[in-house]
Each structure stands twice: as C-alpha cells, then as structure tokens.
C-alpha cells in the first residue's frame, strides 16, 4: 500500500479535511509519521542517555539516568552508564549501549596494563588522552559513544572533559554533559552551577539538574545514579524520579 503521508502534506492534496482530522481518522498516516521519525533517529539516540559531570571544591560528581531503551521502548530501568576506573577516576558512556560496553572493556584492559607497568594509578588527563586515542583509532568505523571523564588529579584538583565519537576532547572547568538530554542539561546546569561548591551542595545541585532534565527527554529517565568523589571517599547514591 502506498504511504498516504505525501498526499496528506502536499499543497496539491485533494483532501479537504483539516490535517489534524486526517491524523485522527486515518491511523495509517499516523503510522507513517511514526516510522519516519524512527527511521530518522540518530544511532546515538537509539538507547537514550543523560550523563553530566560537575566540579566542586576539591571534589566532583558524575551522574547518569538509569533507562535502557530501544528507541521509544523501555528495556531496563537499572542500566549502568557510569564506570569506576579507580577510586579517583570515573567515566560515563552515552550513546549506543553495545558500543559503550565494548569500549569500557577495552579501557579496563589498557588501564590494567598501565597499572602493571607503571605501578601507579593513571591520572585523569592521561586517561582522557588514552580514550581519545582509542576512539580516533576507530574513526573509520567509530564507537557510537560520547564519553564523559571525571577525576581528581594532582593536589586533588578536579578534572572533567567530554569528547565526540572520534576523540575530539572538550575540556571544561565547571560541568560537561552528554546524551539525548544534553540540551536540557546545559540549561539546568548553567542556571544551577556555582563555583567552589562543597560536596553535599554539589550532590544536591547535580541531582536536581539531572532530574529536571530527564523529565524533558522521552529517551532518558527512570531515576538517576550519582557518584560523589572527594579526596578521601566515594559516595554512590540512587535517585528516584518519575517512572514513566
């Protein structure tokens, strides 16, 4: 059967009913819209994600949503998107979930080799360069991931950065975001962020920014997962948000 969508939206259409009436009365037109929307969806949006990292005074926080979806269908509500590399270094992987897990396994392998050879933990700046090199190596068939890296470097100075799928780094001194909810996260973080926040204030700020942002994105949500990292401890908390 031919798709009725072109006839419905064409100026030369012979249909005299208003367009919204056609949508209501002809379910096939609505089905065409739905298929068109899904076919145009970016592969980075296939599973949905929202990741944000934010710095405070000698501390940082990194948070993500917990939803794993297949386009508009929710598959899991406890999916891990933030990974601990060592006590002062974390990475969040937005994008295609299968590529994120593959990339994480490669990073663990390279990190363990470094620790065996150097007998010390990798600095966040070094780790960011490693991630960038691995992504650029696969640039002709890239991992569809957008990493967010957060860690404590020399003298416990917080470091955060993000990069695209071929490893182009974007450094920041306040916050970085990634995922399908990134536009909402930018707005929330810009309005809520303050320099030199203490640990608990930082946790409250990043939590409110995440929850308010995923409510405006249908591909992410189902609560949040937050890591708050100081020079002496790592605190992990689960947020409960809207479950729809």
From TrEMBL:
Its main location: cytoplasm. GO terms for cellular component: cytoplasm; nucleus; proteasome core complex, beta-subunit complex. Keywords: Cytoplasm, Nucleus, Proteasome. GO terms for biological process: proteasome-mediated ubiquitin-dependent protein catabolic process. InterPro entries: Ntn_hydrolases_N, Proteasome_beta_3, Proteasome_bsu_CS, Proteasome_sua/b, Proteasome_suB-type. It is found in: Cytoplasm; Nucleus. Non-catalytic component of the proteasome, a multicatalytic proteinase complex which is characterized by its ability to cleave peptides with Arg, Phe, Tyr, Leu, and Glu adjacent to the leaving group at neutral or slightly basic pH. The proteasome has an ATP-dependent proteolytic activity. Component of the proteasome complex. Belongs to the peptidase T1B family. PANTHER family: METALLOPROTEASE TLDD, PROTEASOME SUBUNIT BETA TYPE-3. This is Proteasome subunit beta. It comes from Buddleja alternifolia. The lineage of its organism: Eukaryota, Viridiplantae, Streptophyta, Embryophyta, Tracheophyta.
